Hints:
The chain is α/β, with parallel strands linked by helices. 40% of the residues lie in helices and 16% in strands. A hairpin with a 2-residue loop joins strand 8 (296-300) and strand 9. Helix 2 packs across helix 12 (188-204) and helix 18 (384-398) packs across helix 19 (412-424). The model has no long low-confidence stretch (mean pLDDT 92).
Amino acid sequence: MQKDLFLFTPPFTQLNTPYPATAYIKGFLNTKEIDSYQMDLGIEVILELFSAAGMTKVFDYALDQNSILNNNSQRIYALKDHYIKPLDGIISFLQGHNDTFARQICTDHFLPQASRFDQVDDLEWAFGNMGMQDKAKHLATLYLEDLSDFIVDCVDDNFGFSRYAERLGMSANSFDELYTELLQPLSYIDEIAISILEKKLKDIQPKLVVMSVPFPGNLYSGLRSCQYIKNHFPDTKIAMGGGFPNTELRSVKDARVFEFVDFICLDDGELPLELVSDYVLNTSSKSMGELELKRTFVLDNGVVTYKNNATRSDYKQLQIGTPDYSDLLLDQYISVIEVANPMHSLWSDGRWNKLTMAHGCYWGKCTFCDISLDYISLYEPIAANVLVDRMEQLIEQTGEQGFHFVDEAAPPALMRSVALEILKRNLTVTWWTNIRFEKNFTQDLCHLLKASGCIAISGGLEVASDRLLKLIDKGVTVEQVAQVTRNLTAAGIMVHSYLMYGYPTQTIQETIDSLEMTRQLFELGVIQSGFWHQFALTAHSPVGRNTEDYGITPHLKEIGFANNDVQFTDSTGIDHSIFSNGLKKSLFNFMHGIGFDMSLQEWFDFDIPETTIAAYYIEDCLNKEIFRSIKTNSKVVYLGNLPLIAPCKKIKKGKEVTYLDLVFHDKTSSFQIEIPEDQGNWLIDQLELLQPTNKISTFSQIKASYESKFNQFEPFWYSEEMEILRANGLLVL
Length: 733
């Protein structure tokens, strides 16, 4: 099965779904008729390691090394036979097979338990008596995490399910520590990865290996893999790209990096990789100095050289093809549930097809974000019909109807168009994405998104302070966030909010007030999930490029290798890290619907100031009436069913008048309206035309149609009968 290009993602990313970079690249290569093979090395290592045979070897190795030292590891080793016996069945269950095994997993005393089970949630509260599949996944996840803890304690302290040796890649301004580690003998995990990689390379015999490194936790194992390739397949060239090089390696100078790779490509990888491929496959007699490359580092005469001399323009999103997930072990990924939170499970449970609605960010102003880099700054949306074409192609290829749109911030206008296109084609899909909580997410738009299959939204509230939101240039206010999250929640879309603390100039009072805002949002049920993270200064953000404007002093170091996260001193002198435990503990409780009546002081073991936020601030925000005048070009869609019709007679002003009794049935309820016969017949015709499978009408077209038969449209549009319809599927978008 010889192929010219071999694409791989090194260990580790997600257990439940492949990282999409190689699938995107393979889809593009297909359009150029360049044959390739792709592999997620991480999932293959996990499957070999977490098997009865693999874990038996782990226990034997730990005993030989005399490394079983702490009480938890000794307990696991003492129960090793109980851990090994169900392991293959557990993995099969988490891969979506053998569903009936869930009942056994949930049985008391079936799974051995070590420290991971000490903090187990109230399972009956979290999953109920019948949520057995999810409950079993959660228990099985804890069981695997016990085994992971044993590996970390006794075999390889760099191991993690979604990362490996992450500390070596994070903010590694110098290559020294990583290089020294790479000169050491292979670790236990390295041995497994290299043995799998070796078999695949002998089978594929590629001329060019393309390695995607999305995160710091993939870097060490990626370079280990490249080291092996260089030593045993010296004629094979290696190109590296992905999220880590794009953000961290833009200033790389250390020539030793090129002992492991030949090319480092930045930003959109299609054209840079095409040019590298052309060199390797067709024109390898050229010297490095003669090459035309796009955004690519090479080693030329012993010096790290950045080459961006190709005159060709990058490909448009329309030209890069549909991601291709072939070759990947799609039916062998492992769904896990680490915490009993439905939003968190989206990241780890189930396999999602990954797509992007738009390249870059339509807002592109947030001051903590890498808006100077192409992956944010170059905004290019994909036409809705093309995007839904790709969805249909992926459903056919993968058999999966779930989609995670991995946008920086999905644009609401495009989300509307995509939703309408999904409904027009009568597709049944499930999808979720990341947004800005901006005012265009009206109640009607949220209902449309839900009808098209949107189940969840994540978005950045960041710091729940209007002063800081303005400084961040987020373009939203706390009031606006509250109203948008209410609209989403009311439509049945789950909401996850990213929360930030420690932003430059943030005071202690603002941190506490932000927590109070968050408490109220959760108590009122408009946000269901969240995550606090401490502000990190990146070199490519407006804050990182203009530190003096934000009252911080960066601790700059000489850059030989990676450059992104920057240590700094804040002019406030506040150690924001002391708030971490209290913020996360309170949020954990809020997500479980408890702790709302506790004072904020109770979450912290040091004194904090009283909040200055009024007790009903968020409720007052939600109670404000919002009137938006309808634009003439607004689209009007009817998502409901056509009514059953029964004529009836009424006496109006002493005359008998014929009315229509219209009875509407939806999936869960019914309602009815009475309307004069002539208006009723017009309305029924319009409702049929307004269904999303038909051509979309505008408000001005409907108004003109009505006024061609009757009097002014506005009194009819704002009548009680139409208000009932507006609340039951008649949407203005």
